[in-house]
Design brief:
Blueprint (H helix, E strand, L loop, with lengths): L1 H8 L9 E5 L3 H12 L5 H14 L20 E7 L4 E7 L5 H11 L4 E3 H10 L10 H10 L26 E6 L5 E7 L20 E4 L3 E7 L1 H7 L1 H10 L4 H15 L1 H4 L4 E7 L4 E7 L3 E6 L8 E3 L1 E4 L5
Parallel strand pairs: 3-4, 10-13
Antiparallel strand pairs: 1-5, 1-11, 2-3, 2-6, 5-6, 7-8, 8-9, 9-10, 11-12
Helix pairs in contact: 1-2, 2-3, 3-4, 8-9
């Protein structure tokens, strides 16, 4: 990932204690963008927004931002959330033709009395705030949709996040990014174009505060990836943070939350991927997944290498494809 390494090379050394973590392979690049903020002593909220914007705009991949795959009707819709550790949060869902949903989510947080805006209302708000309307569906995504329509078969596939669409340079899932700054402030962001070929109108966990993302300065932060319906059913990111509040380490909190998913839907859990990533207020990181194959990236003030990925432990030891 040359672009990620180039961004990281330009970052200044961060104050001790700053740390950023992100989901999947492209978390390396997102962390590098966030590090430009943290490395200069900036705050965690600005850092996670910068990392999410990098994923939305600098890459072209099927599941985040401008190159995402459309729904079953051929429409590309975007979801995002952002949250600070003091409880401030904002989100947008079912947003069309706006390039940076995470920044619109932050505008919802800072400029309205609301937490979430959706659909046409979210788009109208974004335009009123100065975000340009930009057609985002690429010809490559349109071709992939036309190919899918030949069979119109739909079933979530485990670790589809790491498989490439023909012609793509990369293929990933939701970006979840969590940061701790030198002042001890926590923040997180989550951004996605959702499942390819989803029913028109479907919204997953990414913009749902407490499901795809939750942050509390007193405890820590958590984000999720995989099949969003499972995160919504379990208020999963909130659950991970509450388990850390009770004294679990980030890894143990993620593992216990995953085990709850298995207990509630044992048969479904064999066919679906669910992944959690957590960061506590001391900067400790942990992750856990249903199935083998979930990776995440960590960057801090240490010597590196900062483009290394860590693989999460999992309930099921074999990687299903």
């Amino acid at each position: 990932m040359p672009g990620a390494r180039a961004a990281a090379a330009g970052a200044a050394p961060a104050p001790a204690g700053a740390r950023v973590v992100s989901t999947w392979d492209f978390g390396v690049g997102a962390n590098a963008a966030a590090w430009q903020v943290l490395g200069a002593g900036g705050n965690a909220l600005d850092a996670v927004e910068a990392g999410a914007r990098w994923a939305e705009g600098e890459l072209c991949n099927p599941t985040v931002g401008r190159c995402g795959n459309p729904d079953r009707d051929g429409v590309l819709t975007l979801d995002a959330s952002i949250m600070a550790g003091d409880g401030r949060c904002g989100a947008v869902a079912f947003l069309q033709d706006i390039a940076h949903p995470v920044s619109v989510a932050r505008a919802v947080m800072e400029k309205t009395p609301h937490v979430m805006l959706v659909g046409e209302g979210a788009q109208r708000f974004a335009v009123a705030q100065g975000f340009p309307r930009t057609p985002l569906l690429t010809e490559q995504a349109r071709r992939a949709w036309r190919e899918w329509r030949k069979t119109a078969e739909y079933a979530p596939q485990i670790n589809a996040e790491r498989r490439q669409r023909p012609g793509d340079q990369s293929n990933h899932d939701t970006l979840g990014i969590l940061a701790l700054d030198a002042q001890g402030r926590l923040a997180g962001a989550c951004t996605t174009s959702g499942m390819a070929w989803k029913l028109h109108g479907r919204v997953g966990d990414s913009p749902i505060v407490g499901a795809g993302l939750y942050v509390d300065d007193e405890v820590g932060a958590a984000t999720a990836s995989g099949v969003g319906e499972e995160m919504i059913r379990n208020a999963a990111s909130f659950l991970v943070v509450e388990l850390m509040r009770q004294g679990r380490s980030p890894m143990d909190a993620c593992r216990e939350a995953i085990e709850r998913v298995v207990r509630k839907r044992p048969e479904a859990s064999k066919r679906l991927q669910v992944c959690f990533l957590a960061l506590n207020k001391r900067g400790e990181v942990g992750a856990y997944a249903l199935h083998k194959g979930f990776v995440y990236a960590v960057r801090d003030a240490g010597p590196g290498p900062h483009d290394a990925l860590r693989e999460a432990a999992s309930v099921y030891a074999t990687e299903q494809v």
